């Protein structure tokens, strides 16, 4: 047995030597012609070198297999199948290191036969040759180039800007939904390495982006839309030259910023009251870093609101303390979540808010109502409200008084409408409405209704008695009320023969007043009538003027003496009596009745009731007089009477024993009249002679007085066209009640000034005409009494 084995070994060795002799000769030829199959080996792992042992001829059998390495003539491994089937063949490896780790595997398909080398190392690299000998077929040779794998360098990661991401540092930040770019690169590696991006066990990118020739291998990862779940995760770049050699891996933690993905106003959308502030809560989540919440109302940031915020890693809550006003009703409230690190990373929740507020209110004339408002028409006013909730009740007011519903009077307030039927003059005024809802009650601003009406006689001027002097021109004033202003006046007069229009007479129309200067054509003219018209219509009832013979005026009444308010004199005031149908003026006469300084018991004429001659006179358009020139210590007597063109009132009102006790600076009146009349009184000191002089003086004075009055009357009757006009105008420059005149000046002077004065009134006091005319001689109107009883 031993010998058998030995013998075979020797024989094999011989055979090998023979083979070698043959083979060694043609080694170079093999290397040129035979293709070498490349096999990559991983150090420390096994390598398998393929060798196809399928015979060229069917039924043929393998006899010998030899493995050679590089240029060595000696096989490192052999297999002898000459004695039987190949699976029973004897394997022989050279006793060196490589041979001892090799084994030829023949199991399975002959084409899959291979030499397995265990635990290869760098020295095993080289070109191996497999020689297969057959029984009948020609010998075949295969060449295998075993090269060891070289792993590339460790991967390096770069961002889009080309900056390297250091180990254990995160990449990013990347924005959710935006592109993410990372580049992984390795150097070297044999064979050319593969480079893959991995995430959670799956390959993201396996495409090599570098050129084949390059020493550096690059894989650029591009994610078009960065998904949310990449936040707080890592991705991995794996490099390998051969899968069998394992991977060289590099993990990169990612920083990904997230948009807020949820924002919600969580407070229920209830009706907000305008009067108080209310809390509204908004929450957001999903943002990284945490979102900031802002509030907008109607597109504008709410600045002065109180906001409470809470914040966790991805959650933000905000409580807005909102104060709304009525105008905010229907506006849009927006809660907006902004990721401060994420441009455009915002989300919003919006809602329309509903504000409860007290009514806002305005009175308007219904468009269907005609404006301007005319007497006799119907109008409707509307109470325009804006309120939430809608008002439950309305009220209407005229001049601040509640308007009751009165169908008979045609006053119909109905909720937000007020209808006034058949408008009258007194329907004019300030109208207002009020409306109430749960939030309160509001009153509107007053709304002025002006009513236009046809002219009518001014109150107290419906029927006027006009005193007429024979052959005198009458001046008659027709006063009407009208809105708008009068456009036309017309006059008629009637006699026993009928009613005739006034023609050719002079009229002056000043606004609401028409002044007619009329000379009656005959004695039987009974009345004048005046009609005015305006845009609304013609006056229905005329103003009437009954022409009666003129009379002397009535005496003034209720005369009083009192100190002036400044304490610098005395004031005498009376109430005017009837003017007798003509213009009246008033005269006050002052007489010095100081008892002469003589032994007591002696009496004077003045004590016996005879009026002493007046010291001076004061003339006035009104029965109101101020006396500044009286001397303290003296006693005076004051007489007041009225006069018109027909004559003077009789008897005069006499106020005896008027004294001044004030300390006002004494002011002598430098008039001739005074000195004239002083002389007799100062001289009358002792005797009856004096008394006689006084009587004579008084008589002369009385005669002079009567004469002057007669002259005055005559002058007035002849010259003055305005005698009948009853008017007064207080002119600030020359108040007529303070005229102080000498007796001489009283006649011509007074009347000249008086007529000038009146003429100026006609020209300049148009707007005050109604005020100027006081106390006309009214017959029928009850108002006339009150207008006469003005207190002074
Ligand atoms: C090959 O081997 C088989 C069985 O071992 C044998 O039957 C056959 O004859 C052999 N062929 C040749 C050509 O030797
Ligand atoms: C074996 O293959 C490697 C890799 O392709 C090559 O670099 C080497 O030159 C080859 N060796 C021979 C002897 O052909
Ligand atoms: C990773 O993949 C597994 C299985 O596909 C999955 O269940 C898991 O949720 C993934 N994890 C992440 C963070 O995506
Ligand atoms: C309604 O108006 C008429 C006419 O103005 C008046 O006489 C009557 O008193 C009013 N009724 C009420 C209830 O005020
Ligand atoms: C003139 O008119 C007045 C007022 O209308 C009237 O009272 C008077 O009787 C009339 N006189 C004549 C004569 O018609
Ligand atoms: C006319 O009378 C009306 C009503 O009294 C008044 O409103 C208006 O101002 C007067 N017009 C003139 C010009 O005086
Ligand atoms: C005027 O005032 C004086 C004192 O200042 C007083 O004594 C006198 O009675 C008053 N006269 C009248 C009329 O009021």
From TrEMBL:
Domain Fibronectin type-III residue range list: 552-663
Secretion signal, residue range per the UniProt entry: 1-24
Keyword terms, alphabetized: Disulfide bond, Membrane, Signal, Transmembrane, Transmembrane helix
CDD domains in alphabetical order: FN3
InterPro entries: CD80_C2-set, FN3_dom, FN3_sf, Ig-like_dom, Ig-like_dom_sf, Ig-like_fold, Ig_sub, Ig_sub2
Keyword Cytoplasm carried by entry: no
Annotated Pfam families: C2-set_2, Ig_2, V-set
Spans through the membrane: 691-718
Protein name per the record: Nephrin/kirre
Membrane topology: Single-pass membrane protein
Positions of the Ig-like domain: 44-147, 155-255, 260-354, 359-444
Location in the cell: Membrane
One GO cellular component, as annotated: membrane
